[in-house]
Amino acid sequence: MYQELLRETEKRMLKAVEVLKADLRTIRTGRASPALLERVTVEYYGHPTPLNQLAVISAPEPTLLVVRPYDLGALEEIERGILTSDVGLTPSNDGRIIRLPIPRLTEERRQELAKMVRQRAEEGKVALRNVRRDTLEDLREFEKEKLVSEDEFYRGKEKLQELIDHYTEHMEEISSRKQREIIES
Known about the structure:
Elements: H1 2-25, E1 41-44, E2 47-50, E3 55-61, E4 64-69, H2 75-84, E5 92-93, E6 98-101, H3 107-144, H4 150-184
Antiparallel strand pairs: 1-2, 3-4, 4-6, 5-6
């Protein structure tokens, strides 16, 4: 009984790690990455549409992103969407494509971004702890209702702690890798 609960818990913890990874991909490191524009939405025929559905985003150089729209009529809206987003890049439109030069990061901005990475990693760890709390409550409830024995409860509790330790360590690795990437770029 508790094994099924732990499997479900592990899925939820893995999802928290994936959310952290996706979140960190959108943080600039000084290198061009199409992932920087993942969250940009564009008003296209009155509907907010993700940029990656309207254009091909590529990084032909380490400091340049190129946005090539499928529909040239959407070029103005794409440019406006990039300007109003929080990516902090200024688009250059030549009538066919949009170029986004990635400026070098100042030392102050690098420290700011590294701090943001640590903060997002901490939010991920809080999500893991919330999953642990919910699972622990479920385990206690199972024990109270005599669905699991006391031994199974303690075994489940130990396995839960092993899971939280593993995924917390994994989040730390992801966070420190991203921080190094920011500082070294």
